[in-house]
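re: ur question from yesterday

yeah so i grabbed the chain u mentioned. its 818 aa long if i counted rite. heres the sequnce exactly as i have it in my notes:
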Amino acid sequence: MTTGPARSGAASAPRPCQAVRAWARPALRRPASLLTALLGARRAVLLGALALLASASASASASASASASASASASASASASASAADVPVPAFEAVRAAHAPSDLTLRDRDGVPLHTLRVDPSVRRGPWVALADVSPALRHPLLLSEDRRFWDHGGVDWPALAAGAWAAAWNQRTRGASTVTMQLAALLDASLARPPGGRDLGDKLAQLRRARQLEARWSKVEILEAYLNVVPLRGELVGLSAAADQLFGKHPSGLDALESALLAALVRAPNATPAQVERRACDLLGAQGLGCAGLGTTLAQALARPPGPLRVAGADRGEMLAPHFARQWFATPRAPDARSTLDARVQRLALAALRRQLAELRGRGVDDGAVVVLDNASGAVLAWVGSAGRGSAAAAVDAVLARRQPGSTIKPFVYGLALEQRLVGAGSVLDDAPLALAAGAGLYAPRNYDHAYRGPVTVRTALASSLNVPAVRVGAMVGPEALFERLQRAGLRPSESGGYHGHALALGSADVTLLDLANAYRALARGGRVSAPHWVAGGTAATGRGGGADGRLVEPGARERRVLEPGAQERRLFEPGAQERRLFEPGTQERRLFEPAVAWLVGDILADPAARAAGFGLDSPLVTRGWAAVKTGTSKDMRDNWCVGWSERYTVGVWVGNASGAPMHGVSGVEGAAPVWREVIGALHAGQPSRAPAPPSGLRRIDGEWWLDGTGPGPAGGPGRDVAVFGIQRPRDGSVIALDPEIPPAAQRLVIEGAPGRWVLGGRVLGEGSRLEWLPRPGRHVLQRHGGAAEGGRVERVRFEVRPGQAAPSPPVRRRRD
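ran it thru and got these structure tokens back, copy pasting raw so excuse formatting
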């Protein structure tokens, strides 16, 4: 350990009074007893004697120092000193590796910075800066202010310590005697931090000893570099990197003389008034032979700068394009060079398209929107726009993960399930006419968006034109529970249960997120195979890297959601009050949602402009230059607009509405979300138009229409001739039928109607066909319809009640009063 500087500096220290020197000099031969006696002395005199002793014994032997330490450990202060000394000195590399900036930058798949996000709300800390990258204009005034003999002492500036202690003994004001190394020791070890009441002898001894240990194991360059990165400054700023960025908008390498002097003054007194800071900075400039012109203006501008994101690497903040995704990204610890799957170009164009559309709709009560873009093949998230930001009162709400009613965007899965079960074909005819279905104690009567009815329509027209009544008819055929299960399989995680939503589930009554909905559509684009999306560059859903190192997705209102954990390839959902539901079983990489022919046929219908014309016309925002399958949706009271669709390579989902849940003024999905969808799809395929996929096996083309194997035109000559009837039409499930007391019971009949089959009531066969008449009996009954071989022995049942009629009471006889 270097002792030369201490010896040379001792001669220049102020000479103490003769009495103190005469008292202390003999004690040098018995330092242990001296320290024991000093523990009860007045603090000022104690520190003065300590300084004199340290100055005179800088070259004392190690055995004497050990003896002094052993004696001092008898007191509480000396015990604290020994305890701090027992803590091993951390390696410089470990301190540098543990340095965590408060602001981190999200990068896209090519390393382009997208967004800088503050992840530590307690401090503002910049990235670690090497001493070679710090401006010389800063290093010199800093050492001039804090430690003038830094390059000469061995961790403790004994002359400065003696002078300070002597001045304190006589109540004189003087500059501090703590060296940069001593300050660093206290910053690295919390036990050495200055307590509110000031350090006692034991604390000071521990700090001195730790400073000497740092000097023995670290180089001077490492000590100064670490100090510059961990020293606290004004307010929440820690380290000169954060201070230079926040106050002057510069990297530490670019600081000039005025800025450097101000920062050095702030290191000395972070909470000083602006006038005090300016005065101290001017003194430092004067000590360097420089003037103070412009110093006050520079300080005023620095203190007036509003807080903002810190630069993570030079001027590499990014364009601040993805605040919501950045929160997801940094919810998991990331390597400094980790890259997301986002594409800066796609993120930029998606955000711009959304902002333009919201500006057009601002006068119609629309404030918010969201866009997500997925790569069909890999599931990589290419764009994640959680909010347009501008003009929104809830810009921080991530609408990509907000759960809302999807409206008609659920219909492709309703028809897909019916097609897969061979209940309908693309050319089958449905009745678009007023409909009333039993719903609890009442009736559910869906209506089309335009309140018009078109009579017999094909499945192709009904789906492409988004007709509500035919969709509910098909939903009733497959049943709410079967549909709910299929939506679960698609990863939509609908709320409640199929029975809770009933027939309204076919029109999107269950809440979903935009991310889940877009990924379910991606399954249709991939031939019916569903897998989880992912956003870590180089990872895929198949490798289990769905959300990052731990696969977590932070979702509002949920305790925890894990997306494809490493090694498990599963996705879990924990919601308040709900039990765990697994969408991807352990060991599986993806699962089948629909057979390839069904997924292709649904896409072919959604990409058919002629079939879409009945509902949207031939020229609408859904028409694209290349091939694309697309579906819009509008929730109840026009609170949500959706437009989701896919091209040859991409799936794009758009939501437009209000984060507050307020309804829009006459804005439908084709007017609100569809223009954004078309602009994004068009930009993605600007260089190469999307091509239509080839039909897979399992399909036949008859009379210009595609039919799945096992289905085809009816015997009447094809679609449009007869209106097909499915399931049990009458009586409805839950119906209550009252007999008419004015008609003899034997003359009353209950008409049973539905698809052809064998009808069974209470275990007794009533007959076969599509229409029967039954003599009703009071009571609760279960009616079953057994389908033939074409339906695979399908059995449907409804429950209803027949109540006996009651004669109306005779009207009371009114007597005339005289």
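noticed a couple things. The chain has a mean pLDDT of 79. also The radius of gyration is 40 Å.
anyway ttyl
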